[in-house]
Write a structure and sequence with these properties.
By secondary structure, the chain is an alpha/beta fold. The protein has ten helices and 17 strands. The strands form four sheets. The protein has an eight-stranded mixed β-sheet with strand order 1-2-3-4-5-6-7-8, covered by helices on one side. The protein has a five-stranded mixed β-sheet with strand order 9-10-11-12-13, with no helix packed on it. Helix 3 links the parallel strand 6 and strand 7. It is globular.
Length: about 350
């Protein structure tokens, strides 16, 4: 299928009840356009890039994955705004995952636009440029801690990483949150929201009453926690604190990276907090029932909104299920509800 068959070269009205992954250029606020770009995987099918008019140019929030189809669709979508890549002055990137960062780095080589990202993503970028580093290294280490070495071996044997050290070049600007981002059209707020990654930030445009939430607050799914090369010691604790921070800000319309635009950041934050409260209880119950490691506990839990058994998940999702479970068990251990011991780098849990 060609790019022309996939996308329409005109601005469309955004339908929050429609297929949010359908290619196109959708107006979601005055001068703000949602552009879904494809991902080369079965789980998340698309990532939203937001194009914002700024003077006689554009600022883009996030960029997409550096694959040819995403680049072509982004170029076509910008044409609907009577713009091209040369009109993009800056990428403001919420976090370092490749579906948000790598296309910005690729386009910068050709067009010279500025790329900005949170300073606490520096460790992941350094690791990504290391030619001696195992591309799956961060996930493999977490799987080992969770008792999931067998999953790690299967992952390396069956799923290519498609790692290219050029994708992980440093940005032009390191963002220090909290702070402000000055644009021609106004000043945005920037808030630190670690948890999904260490350096995740969200951007608030008060004039348009919107929050560009990246993967911190997603309207239909729960973000993965600590999926990065250099995770923090307690990523779920970081994430829950970040949710509280965002909940204390004035409510805004939610412009997230995966899913349709939403009417309220606060409403979705409340749902996410409730989800994690429930998950913490379920994780504790799994340990009380005899699960000693995150891998064992993950097998006892149900997954996704459809409550799938663990064994029904694809390989990559099973890997994330183990790391997600470990994030919850570590929070319980830090709070004294569970007791954690480490044996050869593997975390073991019992009820306190």
């Amino acid at each position: 299928m060609t790019v022309e068959e996939l996308g329409r070269n005109e601005v469309q009205v955004d339908d929050p009840d429609g297929d949010w992954t359908a290619p196109g250029t959708y107006e979601v606020a005055d001068g703000v356009y949602r552009i879904p770009l494809p991902l080369p995987q079965d789980g998340l099918r698309a990532v939203n890039v937001y194009a914002v008019r700024d003077g006689d140019g554009l600022v883009l929030v996030d960029s997409g994955w550096a694959i040819a189809l995403a680049r072509d669709l982004l170029e076509q979508s910008l044409k609907a705004l009577d713009c091209g890549f040369a009109d993009v002055r800056r990428f403001l990137v919420t976090h370092v995952h490749r579906d948000h960062y790598t296309l910005a780095v690729t386009l910068r080589r050709e067009f010279g636009m500025r790329v900005s990202i949170g300073r606490d993503e520096a460790a992941t970028l350094r690791t990504g440029r290391d030619p001696e580093h195992e591309p799956w290294g961060g996930l493999l280490l977490q799987l080992h801690r969770g008792g999931g070495d067998a999953l790690g071996r299967e992952l390396v044997a069956t799923i290519p990483s498609n790692h290219d050290v050029r994708d992980w070049e440093d940005p032009d600007d390191w963002l220090d949150a909290p702070g402000a981002v000055s644009l021609e059209s106004g000043t945005w707020e920037m808030h630190p929201t670690p948890g999904h990654t260490r350096g995740h930030v969200v951007f608030v445009d008060p004039a348009r009453d919107v929050m560009f939430a990246g993967d911190h607050v997603l309207p239909r799914i729960t973000p993965s926690i600590g999926f990065e090369q250099a995770p923090s010691a307690l990523p779920l604790g970081d994430y829950l604190r970040s949710l509280r921070l965002v909940r204390e800000l004035p409510d805004r319309r939610l412009l997230a990276a995966h899913g349709p635009a939403g009417p309220s950041v606060h409403a979705r934050v409340d749902e996410l907090v409730e989800h994690h409260d429930t998950r913490l209880s379920q994780a504790r119950a799994a340990v009380a029932a005899g699960a000693g490691t995150a891998a064992e506990a993950a097998r006892r839990l149900r997954w996704t909104r459809r409550e799938h058994p663990y064994d029904d998940l694809d390989l990559f999702s099973r890997c994330l299920a183990v790391t997600e479970t470990m994030a919850h068990l570590d929070v319980l251990a830090a709070g004294g509800t569970l007791v954690r011991t480490d044996e050869d780098g593997v975390h073991h849990y019992v009820t306190g």
